[in-house]
Amino acid sequence: MKQVYLDTFGCQMNVADTDRMELILFHSGYQRTLEKEDADLILVNTCSIREKAEQKTFSLFGGLKPLKTANPDLILGLTGCLGQQEGKKLLQRMPYLDFVMGPDQVEGIAQAVDQVRNTGKPFVWTGFDQEKIYSIPELAGDLPKSPGPSAFVNIIKGCDKFCTFCIVPFTRGREKSREPEELFDEVRHLVNRGAKEIILLGQNVNSYGKRGLKNPMPFHELLYGVAEIPGVERLRFTTSHPNDFTRETIRAYRDLDILMNHLHLPVQSGNNQVLKAMRRDHTIEEYKGLLAELKSEVPDMSLSTDIIVGFPGETDEAFEDTMKFMEEVGYSSSYMFAYSPRPGTPANELPDSVPDETKKRRLQEVISLQHKQSEKLGQSFLGKNVEVLIEGRSSKPDYIYKGRNPQYWNVNIQGEEGTIKVGDTVTVQVENITGHSLNGTTRCGAGVQ
Ligand code: SAH
Ligand code: SF4
Ligand code: F3S
């Protein structure tokens, strides 16, 4: 078999797209290699959410150029959001590239490779698919690998929200959902091959089923449907937009034991003026109201969020509002970013009024606040037993496995080698906490009476 080297930047959607390309290429005779030097084909699935993600891509390609010079038969492809955004400018900047593809072209990866082989001419494929419905056709035959215990399932692609800072609606196009039956089939298939936890995935999962489907189904009904599939032990979803989050979804948390008590609900800022300029279309009071409702139905719900600091016009006071809000909510974890202007987005037209130094300082402040909060929340697990789905080997010395508890904390597990295995759910007594990780011992398994 020929060898393909795949590298991925960006979000879970990109990881899922890379997995899909691996699968399609496997069916046309390519096996994944972890060594660039052995590859006949190198694909870099890129992200353009912030400038830093782009810079990393360019420096990676700088390192790939000598491989192409040494071996002109090597095929070099750039896929993903940066490809969509920059298109043929990338071929001008990196003439040693064979092709550039956007995220909607994933299904055509094998044809793209054939086209390079047949014509040898560089090309750009960045069209959006014209279908109303999003479908990921099942591929028959052998598969290169089994899913892990925790498997992602794409339910919706694209985004119609157009937050003023965000490139995603431009790179991923309009929202399109997959038919429920196709999703149920995929979940059954994953469970039959060893998956225990299903994570429903999309830029805005709560918009699922709003348009286009032959059998329309709102998001909460999809949750109930997946929960009925035998073998699904845990269910999660990400990402949610506060405006599309319904009462029915809150009830699903209450009704469905397998829907884990964790919600990632990006707030971005704690200040109403900034939220308005970001076009998040809700106030901080509305967001708080949603959390209050959620907590009243599911008291041990854990929450995480995304925060942007240094958005144009963010004053010291507005930034303090974000700090205060984070303190008030007590998120278990946050993804925190300094605002990065993106070409073509409305916020890019605003004067970038916050100096870099200030952005950096604010970022450090939210990060250290979050650390403190995670540590404090972590302490509440100390000495307690938590249920952990084992997902793989721990990278921490002295711990054998790692997994997650229902509230999505990382858990490192000590125990007797051989008595527990990946895919088991075990009870772990928490002995200490580091950052957003709980560390402890399990007494489950055959070795224990
Ligand atoms: N669809 C998800 C998240 C998409 S991108 C949502 O709406 O919540 C992930 C996160 O990247 C965003 O939540 C935001 O916090 C951050 N982000 C997006 N564009 C950014 C930009 N231009 N600068 C800094 N952070 C950005
Ligand atoms: Fe971007 Fe906003 Fe859509 Fe999230 S909801 S992907 S932040 S435009
Ligand atoms: Fe990046 Fe595209 Fe995801 S811009 S964050 S890879 S949707």
Short description:
The chain has helices at 12-27, 51-70, 81-86, 88-93, 109-119, 168-172, 180-192, 219-227, 247-255, 272-277, 284-297, 316-329, 356-379; strands at residues 2-8, 30-32, 41-46, 75-80, 99-101, 123-125, 150-154, 156-157, 176-177, 197-201, 234-238, 262-264, 302-309, 333-338, 385-393, 401-404, 410-414, 425-434, 437-442. The protein is an alpha/beta fold and 449 residues long. Strand 3, helix 2 and strand 4 (75-80) form a beta-alpha-beta unit.
Helix count from the secondary structure assignment? 13
Mean pLDDT, to the nearest integer, reads 94
Helix content: 25-40%
Tell me the major beta sheet.
6 strands, parallel
Q: What small molecules does the structure contain?
A: S-adenosyl-L-homocysteine, iron/sulfur cluster, FE3-S4 cluster
Strand order of the largest sheet: 2-1-3-4-5-6
Q: Could you tell me the strand content as a percent range?
A: 15-25%
The low-confidence runs, each spanning 5 or more residues with pLDDT under 50, are none
